[in-house]
Amino acid sequence: MGQRARFVVALPFLVLAATTLRAQPPHSDNAHGAGTNGSSWIAHYREPAARLIGEAMSSTFAWQRLAFLTDTIGNRLSGTPALERAIQWAADEMKRDGLENVHTERVLVPKWVRGAESAEIVEPAYQPLVMLGLGDSAGTGPDGLQADVLALHSFEELDAKASQVRGKIVLFNVTFTTYGETVRFRSSGPSRAARYGAVAMLIRSVGLDGLRTPHTGALQYAPDAPRIPAAAIASEDADRLQRMVDRGGRVVVRRKMEAHFEPDAESANVIGELRGREKPEEIVVVSGHLDSWDVGTGANDDGGGCIVTWEALRIMKKLNLRPRRTVRVVLWTNEENGGRGGLAYRDQHRAELGRHVMMLESDGGVFRPLGFGFTGNELGRQAVKAIATLLVGIAADQINPGGGGADIGPSVTEAHIPAMSLDVDGSKYFLIHHTPADTIDKIDAVEMAKCAAAVAVMAYVVADMPQRLGQ
Ligand SMILES: [Zn+2]
User: Any catalytic annotation for residue 236?
Assistant: First the structure.
């Protein structure tokens, strides 16, 4: 890290030198004179970027706002009164911030209810398991179920041992590597096991080993398989079951889950804007999802992402920095178990998707920011790389491949919109992701302020630069 830091520190001076040699009129709308080829245009943004960063770093406002959301409103599963309160609170607060065109956009969301749940080893000896039912799981019925455990470590092993699966509780005991690699056992494991006759599924929690902490998250039932109850257990409990199975003899687990769906519920995406001063019809979206799982308080996933993207607009407004194009913050509903907020936005805004210049989603926590992921064309990449040089001072200047997010995905795909994500130090994220431990005490106010600063600078410059991003 040290070597890289020294390398990037030199960049702003190079940019400055280039600027003095090839002076461009800042703010010129002359398409030929003020393009984003070359690096001269970026110097114009050094002063506003410094002000945006200074304002974000001058207080703990973002952290305090997230503390209010998570302490006072709490977790925010789709269809709950708490999510409705959060939506109303966010719209009221946006108005108080002086944002424009603040409103909510109706979305019908699935309402999954966890209910009471338990799992325990009953043979060879009674031992309770620390568990969390998977989101969208079916329940066990009032009597619960009881069966022998079959411990497996891959889908290949499941297929190979197909004849042993019937009537069993299948345990996928797969050690966490990356989320992308391990999450498939949570999402498609239940239906894969059910096709061979399993009566229920357990999964080693998809996350880093913590202190006996279970991680929930959504499953996806396949249409052609029985819907068996599925739950995550703490890694310590998965290890214990594994040791018992390895010793031979029967290992029997009893499960009880009241999980069920109720009719779809009214919910909404929350929207606020800072209207563009020259091209208000062109839109830069920054966003996070306001819904969360029903354990913990959804501080890092994704209350923090909501607040730091919203901060971008609040800070611009406070500093009276109104960019050429409109900056719009969207707080999505129902990311965790349905994605209906992102789908509804695509449908409700179809007519203006072509005028979306860029969409950004922050949904990886608000730890120390590293920079951004970007998906778009090479001209766009060069521009955001130049903008990122304005973030060297807070070491958030990386531009990595693969920008995007679950909620912006439907719009981005439909209209080929350049997509970005906030990239942060993720080393602690999967300790607390989807657990009762996702609370604000895991978030540092200074790191969070840097996240807000990074988003503010990126959003402001993309919204204000003479050329449309990628053109
Ligand atoms: Zn999330």
Answer: no
